[in-house]
Amino acid sequence: MGLPLLAETVGLFGLAVAVVVVCHRLRLPTVVGLLLTGLLTGPHGLGLINDPHEVEVLAEIGVVSLLFTIGLEFSLSHLLKSRSVLLVAGPLQVGGTILLTALLGRGCGLPLNAAIFLGMLASLSSTAVVLSLLESKAAVDSPPGRVTLGLLIFQDLAIVPFMLLLPLLGGEQLSGSQVLGRLVLPLVVFGVGLPILTRWLVPELLAIVTRTRDRQLFLLTTVFLALGVAWASSTLGLSLALGAFLAGLTIAESEFSHRVLGTVLPLRDLLTSFFFISVGMLLNTDLVLAQPGPLLLATVALVLLKAVTVVVAVSTIGYPLRIAASAALSLAQLGEFTFILLTVGERYHLLSETLGQTVLGVAVLTMMATPLLMNTAPAVAEWVSRLRLPARIVQGAGMTEEQPLPELHGHLVVIGYGLNGRNLAEAARTAGIPYVVIEMNHEVVRRRSEAGEPILYGDATHDAVLTHAGVPTAKVVVVAISDAAATRRVIDVTRRMNPDIFLIARTRYVGEIEALHELGADQVIPEEFETSIEIFVRVMQQYLVPAERIESLVAQVRQNGYAMLRRPSRRAHFEPVLRDLPGIDLAAVTVGENSPLVGKSLAELELRQRYEVNLLAVQRAETTLAPPAGQTVLCAGDRLIVMGNPEPVAELGKAAHGQD
């Protein structure tokens, strides 16, 4: 008995490795590879595993492990960050999808209970697939990513009432006492018990166990909590899978959640893989391929239907059409909770075997299409933003609520109010530089506006928003957002609106620098490159390398690194020079009160011979001396506009500040 099972397992894992490798080459998610592995090894494929009972047991184990880890990674803080999405957009999207799908099902002759159940299945998307793709694109923190994540959280939470409603949809006749026992009592027990477990009992128990420093005891406690809550859920008439989700939720809010996740992490991916493989095994290719037309039609209908409901839901809470379209394409698939509902729903015979297999087929096809849909999202978002629709729809409802800003000239425009944007705004305020911030988060705009911050709500990819912020008369624009597609669009629109403006853009990766320079960015700051420099500095400090030597090495690294990475600046007067001189910096150096340069003429100082820099101009108050005469005497507060290699420029800066 053992050897055949071992042979089946080895064959299953070997084929999974091969299929997932091929999927990675084709840029398909791992989940798709696992589904295809199940399809190939199941009773309707190569027949490596023929016993349906083995498939069902495998699926049940996978479901429990998947829901436990998903519950473990939940957090109330994540929910609070997406209040508008959770309270408004989420219910609209899920409810709208159920309603439209049920109407279509009734039109096709399905019973009401089956049509509603089909709507529940259609309303859910794949957290595993979408999150993995968002993380690979570093887009989780972008506006489309945050909206998509909020909708996914609501969909995952919706599984709780869905599972409670399945017995009613299955035709069970419940008396008043049965309704109390089957529906109300579990809700009351978990509504009261979960907060107690989450806030007091679980943290206290894990703290006691942690103080023993016994890893095995910690693992046993984790398993006890997971199985205990799951068993209690099953005892109250709820599903074991739902209990596993609630078990993870009880631990998620404790300070030990990360250690628990680390403890179960080795098993999580393995058991989750079993789940997706088992789902692929359940797909009957003979039934699906016998009628490919209805399968493709159902797939297209699902994508369009979910796109409509997501766009309407996201637009309702004031987000621009561009963000709504990106979220719609990201959520256009069926998800892992669809499989779970479908498995549980089979007990109540809500769908025919053919329709159930069609749902499985649509799930596999839409999961496979998700990478393609998400890759086309920026182009689709760009297209919809150009549609001739009312500004309130295209730009977002919050745009029209802003108070008019005072007329500004030569000011700074900061696009994005994340960490970089906040720090830049604070620095500008401290330095007395007039500035305006553009942000897309309603709540942030409201709070900061009430605090007196010059901030406005809007999508900076639109001309009207940039005009409202005074970009045509601004001196500098800093694009500090994490959405790569939006960054490219903002740079293009800004450069066309104001050809003379100085444009600084933030990007995550070095590979994006060239494209942003070509679009019109004067300076591109890659986080990847700057992070490597900061790590390098910290390492040198630990080895007690002198500060002057560190600064010299940093200047050399910057010179060599940016010389390879950047295109020349588009500053009009110096573009021909800098194009042929990679590694040359154009900088402004302020003369301090204690500087040895004060009171001396330029002829005496001989800056070019002493510091190997070229002095292009001297700015004094509102006057600019360009080119400055040799008899010009420097005063405290003068700004020297110089050009040269980074290291000599840094040396001149020290002298100007009295550090020579």
Name some characteristics of this structure:
660 residues; alpha/beta; Na+/H+ antiporter like fold; Rossmann fold; Alpha-Beta Plaits; 6-stranded parallel sheet
Explain how this protein is built.
65% of the residues lie in helices and 7% in strands. It has a six-stranded parallel sheet, sandwiched between helices. Strands 7-10-8-9 form a four-stranded antiparallel sheet, covered by helices on one side. It is α/β, with parallel strands linked by helices and 660 residues long. It is elongated. The chain has helices at 2-25, 30-41, 52-72, 76-81, 83-107, 112-123, 127-136, 143-169, 176-211, 215-235, 240-252, 257-282, 285-290, 292-316, 321-330, 336-345, 353-385, 391-394, 419-431, 442-450, 463-468, 484-497, 513-519, 527-542, 547-565, 575-579, 602-605, 607-611, 646-656, and strands at 412-415, 435-439, 455-457, 476-479, 502-507, 523-526, 585-590, 614-620, 623-625, 639-644. It is built from 29 helices and ten strands. A hairpin with a 2-residue loop joins strand 8 (614-620) and strand 9 (623-625). Helix 8 crosses helix 15 (321-330) and helix 24 (527-542) runs antiparallel to helix 25. The protein has three domains: 2-385, Na+/H+ antiporter like fold; 397-565, NAD(P)-binding Rossmann-like Domain (Rossmann fold); 584-656, Regulator of K+ conductance, C-terminal domain (Alpha-Beta Plaits). The model is unreliable at 399-403 and 564-573 (pLDDT under 50).
